[in-house]
Amino acid sequence: MSEASAAPASAFSLLGGEPAVRALVDRFYDLMDLEPAYAALRAAHGSTLAQARRKLFWYLCGWLGGPDLYQQRFGNPRLRARHLPYAIGNAERDQWLACMVRAMAECEVDPTLAEKLKGAGYATGMIGKWHIGFKEGLRPHERGFDYHYGFLSGARTYLPGKTDNDPVIRNGEPVTTTDVHARQTYYELKSDEKPAPAEPQPK
Question: Of the N and C termini of the chain, which has fewer Cβ atoms inside 10 Å?
Fold first, then answer.
């Protein structure tokens, strides 16, 4: 067996390549354009969705492990910087996620990507920030990941502070501090048999 034939499939190929990504993006923006539930999200996109459709398609192709179509045209995605000119609040965030989840369901992107990767022989884990949502059914351990350590908000800082509304989570249960992230990642990558180091107790 050649090295190429033995290589694990990318998320891009598991999804179905460019035609599947195109179908997902088109359904996502069709729903945004038609459904009142996504009105705030639609308003944030201006008069036309044509450019947004192209850019999301190009970006997702590369993000999923396919051709880097977006980067070839625009360089590093720098998503946060590119979205700074737009007013994106909780309503827009939640509607984007809801619209994408619905588009994925209608395009039969199911089971979840994590479950597809497991079916291809991967063990799946997510450490750090989770951007999909807080709601029941959207958390990492509910979306097919074997292991999760981190927090659920993409906007949360890694620094200690007021974190009661977004605690560090391990497989759905809160833990007390953030200063074990590096050691946790190290031990998880090094061995799935060696226990994680003890967490420091609050002073």
Answer: C
